[in-house]
Write a structure and sequence with these properties.
Strand 8 and strand 9 form a beta hairpin. It is built from 18 helices and 18 strands. It is of the alpha+beta class. Helix 10 (254-269) crosses helix 13 (362-376) and helix 13 packs antiparallel against helix 15. The chain has helices at 8-12, 27-38, 53-56, 77-89, 142-153, 167-172, 180-183, 186-189, 211-220, 254-269, 301-314, 327-335, 362-376, 395-398, 430-442, 461-469, 473-483, 535-547; strands at residues 44-46, 70-73, 94-97, 115-118, 125-127, 133-137, 155-156, 190-196, 202-206, 226-233, 235-236, 240-247, 278-283, 289-297, 319-325, 349-356, 384-391, 413-420. The structure holds 2-acetamido-2-deoxy-beta-D-glucopyranose (NAG) (5 copies). One 2-acetamido-2-deoxy-beta-D-glucopyranose (NAG) binds next to helix 17.
């Protein structure tokens, strides 16, 4: 039997990049851009005539194939400033690329003709051992950040599991991981940003400095500037229990599977915040699915045993494995390895997410499970797919939904539906889009909401604006028109853009939007409302985040 290991979550959990695209720039402005970039001292610029252009523009998701106007490999904040000015003065859209994992290739612009500012040469990391603050340049990847703050002081941050994911986009759009129910999203630990604005100015954004910008960066950063370094309030690294519960019912045993799902969600609803849970569902041959629950428990093995017992008792046939690990061992255990030295495999995939604050109804579980069995286990499917369901709540939900621009804090569960096609170089099959859309639609929820780090280019403008940002969208639009009035940082789902769906197997309808309209329709419905809390709490939260530090 093909057993989904804990490392499957690596393809799953996180996301990266920073961003921005263009308007099929005319030749003259393209020339202006390249001339301007060539005048920046020591800047390594790749243009369409460079021999490495076709490899440098490859995206992690090979479903997308974009041709940037140029890729600037920056090594300093001054070079970022100069490159952004070149983009702005030539009318070229500018995006940043941190790890380059945007599901929609927004790190390459998400359309043709963009200036990509590649941050991979900026990997500075310093931990202040008095304040506990770590300052990390945004060319770092999650594996390097985690290993670095561990090595420098046995410190930890909440974030996703995949070591190759860049910290830029992962922070910008939330940054959920196993430790988040204890310690919040990565943006909740992000106390300060060093950011290059559209006019090339370098500023600091923090809770007491450029507050609107600070608010906007934590949830929608790539539309507002290029963050060159984040400062995070780190935490002492906790030992924990790593566990996995596997259940592989016999062929066609839908009832057992439905029962397992129901047991999981009812247990998860009241689980302590010391318990992290992610459910992975994968096909395993004709009419067979595997249910694989994994996570970490931040406490003793004895307490874990007691905590997990009621769930195990409800899933006959499930097997549990668990082990006691220190912080860095547990990260490596989930990721496979934290090293980012070997070339990372790419993928050719389509993914969607769905966040719900409610339990999934029995009828919806039945249709979801039925869909997976009937549509997802056929031998000739030609797709490799999984569903990952992360448990939210705890510290994530403690702050109100407007404490930062990241909106969907009230989520109970977040689903990710993911299907890859082989080979990498073949066009993604239209049947993959239909299959995944059908699976997403088989789960019925009251309010549609989505996780922006699983960015989904097939959403319409009104869908992505409301599903990612809810009632925060209006404020984001007005900050955008102040901070980036020329819309230099633009890409298909940037703030102020009204771009519609983009799926390569359907006609591309993606006009770029030269100017953000402050009047663009605010998204008032959709999204998940977290429990509203007084603003004072938000302030206390920010202050605590900064000062709580102990060895
Ligand atoms: C990008 O440019 C290439 C080459 O000019 C072209 O084949 C492709 O259709 C363009 N893609 C989009 C989305 O416009
Ligand atoms: C803190 O950092 C300073 C300077 O790097 C170093 O000299 C000192 O030993 C460190 N203290 C601890 C407790 O690690
Ligand atoms: C926890 O449960 C496992 C079996 O799942 C057992 O081997 C172990 O001894 C238990 N540990 C404690 C401290 O209860
Ligand atoms: C859902 O199904 C379970 C049995 O699997 C049952 O105990 C529960 O009452 C049902 N809930 C509703 C709302 O029908
Ligand atoms: C750059 O843009 C910011 C934000 O709009 C503005 O406050 C600042 O004055 C601008 N700087 C220059 C030199 O124009």
């Amino acid at each position: 039997m093909k057993r989904p290991s804990r490392t499957i979550l690596c393809t799953l959990v996180s996301l990266s990049h920073l961003i921005c695209p263009s308007s099929g720039a005319a030749l003259s402005s393209r020339d202006d851009l390249l001339t301007c970039l060539s005048n920046v001292q020591n800047l390594n610029t790749i243009s369409p005539s460079s021999s490495s252009y076709n490899t440098d523009r490859l995206s992690f998701n090979r479903r997308f194939d974009y041709r940037p106007a140029a890729i600037a490999y920056v090594n300093s904040v001054e070079q970022v400033q100069a490159a952004v000015k070149c983009g702005a003065s030539s009318g070229t859209a500018v995006v940043a690329r941190s790890g380059g994992h945007s599901y929609a290739a927004y790190g390459l612009g998400g359309q043709n003709g963009t200036l990509v500012v590649d941050l991979s040469g900026m990997t500075g990391l310093t931990l202040n051992n008095v304040t506990g603050e770590a300052t990390a340049q945004t060319g770092l990847k999650l594996g390097q950040l985690a290993q670095g703050i561990w090595d420098q002081g046995r410190r930890a941050l909440p974030h996703g599991t995949c070591p190759y994911i860049g910290i830029g986009g992962h922070t910008a759009y939330g940054g959920m991981g196993f430790y988040s129910r204890q310690a919040g999203l990565l943006i909740d630990r992000a106390v300060r940003a060093e950011v290059v604005l559209a006019n090339g100015t370098l500023v600091t954004a923090a809770f007491d400095q450029n507050q609107d910008l600070y608010w906007a960066l934590r949830g929608a950063g790539p539309s507002f500037g290029i963050v060159t370094a984040w400062t995070y309030a780190t935490l002492p690294a906790p030992d924990n229990i790593g566990y996995e519960i596997n259940y592989a019912p016999a062929a066609s045993a839908k009832d057992g599977f439905i029962n397992a799902f129901n047991s999981f969600q009812n247990f998860a609803r009241n689980a302590p915040s010391t318990l992290a849970m992610a459910l992975a569902i994968v096909p395993d041959g004709a009419n067979k699915l595997v249910f694989s629950l994994s996570g970490n428990y931040y406490g003793s093995l004895a307490d874990f045993n007691t905590t997990i017992q009621p769930l195990l008792a409800q899933i006959p046939g499930a097997s549990l494995t668990s082990k006691q690990l220190n912080w860095i061992e547990s990260l490596a255990d989930v990721a496979g390895s934290l090293s980012v030295t070997s070339p990372e495999p790419a993928d050719n995939f389509y993914a969607k997410s769905l966040m719900t604050k409610d339990l999934i109804s029995n009828s919806s579980i039945a249709s979801f499970v039925d869909y997976m069995y009937t549509q997802g286990t056929a031998e000739n499917l030609g797709l490799e797919w999984f569903v990952e369901i992360d448990l939210y709540g705890g510290e994530i939900a403690r702050a109100s939904s407007d404490v930062s621009s990241y909106f969907n804090r009230g989520a109970f569960l977040t689903f990710q539906f993911y299907a890859s096609a082989k080979p990498l170089t073949a066009p993604y099959p239209a049947s993959g889009i239909t299959f995944l859309d059908g699976m997403h639609d088989s789960v019925q929820v009251d309010n549609q909401a989505a996780y922006p780090n699983y960015i989904d280019p097939s959403l319409s403008a009104s869908q992505w604006q409301s599903q990612y940002y809810g009632s925060n969208y209006e404020r984001l639009s007005s900050i955008k028109s102040v901070v980036d009035p020329q819309n230099v940082f633009r890409f298909p789902q940037s703030i102020g853009s009204n771009s519609g769906p983009n799926n390569p197997s359907s006609p591309n309808t993606d006009p770029s939007t030269p100017n953000p309209s402050a009047s663009s329709s605010p998204a008032s419905s959709g999204g998940l409302q977290a429990v509203a809390r007084p603003t004072m709490q938000a302030v206390l939260f920010a202050i605590m985040t900064i000062f709580v530090y102990s060895f």
